[in-house]
Specification:
The protein is built from seven helices and nine strands. It is of the alpha/beta class. It has a single domain, classed as 3-Layer(aba) Sandwich (Rossmann fold), CATH 3.40.50. It has a seven-stranded parallel sheet with strand order 4-3-2-1-5-6-7, sandwiched between helices. The protein has a two-stranded antiparallel ribbon with strand order 8-9. The longest helix is centred in the last third of the chain and has 18 residues.
């Protein structure tokens, strides 16, 4: 077997973790690149799949980090085709094993992206990242907010406080390893205890319920 050959570990892909963050990280501080890569590395090390918006910046750095550990990544593009993805949206193909071409633009892509993940890591971001956070919050996905030199974590703390809606699935941490561990632990716990289906509004059904 070649030295650089990457094989998916046993049980790989049980958990899919979306990495959300700015496509342009100039405002994020000097450590955004390494923090994002570390998030991707930890997701791969801990046996999960990286899911991103198939974009540049923070999410792409996370996909790069996953590749350092022979990880697997899936991208959800706003474009309807590879040509549109590259030529119209000017988005990369690098570091992703699979790209899903949604054809729904950025806002529609965000909805599919979050609903295709079991949990979400929020890094340094802008309005698109806040939109993805909002979808994850409404859908009650486990959310890990990465603290850093940026202000996104502080802004999200304020939004959460003003929401006046208790949510025990949100975690803050500056350590990517600890944050990913918390998310995977919560996802696995939820898989054991939550209802068998989810209507994406924080409510679900139990075994034996009739779905109308």
């Amino acid at each position: 077997m070649p030295k650089n050959f990457c094989r998916l570990p046993s049980g790989y892909g049980v958990v899919k973790i979306c990495v959300s963050g700015a496509a342009e990280t100039g405002h994020c501080g000097l450590d955004a690149y390494e923090k994002a890569k570390e998030v991707g590395r930890e997701i791969a090390k801990q046996g999960a799949i990286v899911v991103t918006g198939a974009t540049t910046g923070f999410p792409m750095y996370a996909a790069m980090g996953a590749k350092d550990e022979c990880g697997f990544s899936i991208g959800f593009s706003p474009a309807s085709t590879e040509h549109e993805h590259v030529e119209t949206y000017k988005l990369p193909l690098d570091y992703m094993d699979v790209i899903v071409y949604t054809g729904f633009g950025y806002s529609g892509r965000d909805l599919l992206l979050i609903r295709s993940a079991d949990a979400v890591v929020i890094g340094c971001g802008r309005i698109g990242t806040i939109n993805e956070f909002s979808v994850a919050f409404e859908d009650r996905r486990p959310i890990g907010i990465l603290e850093g030199t940026w202000k996104t974590d502080e802004e999200l703390r304020h939004i959460i406080e003003q929401a006046h809606r208790p949510n025990d699935r949100i975690y803050f941490d500056s350590d990517p390893k600890a944050l990913v561990e918390k998310l995977i632990e919560r996802v696995m716990k939820d898989k054991q205890t939550l209802p068998v289906y989810n209507n994406h509004d924080g409510w679900g059904g139990k075994k034996g319920d009739v779905i109308m």
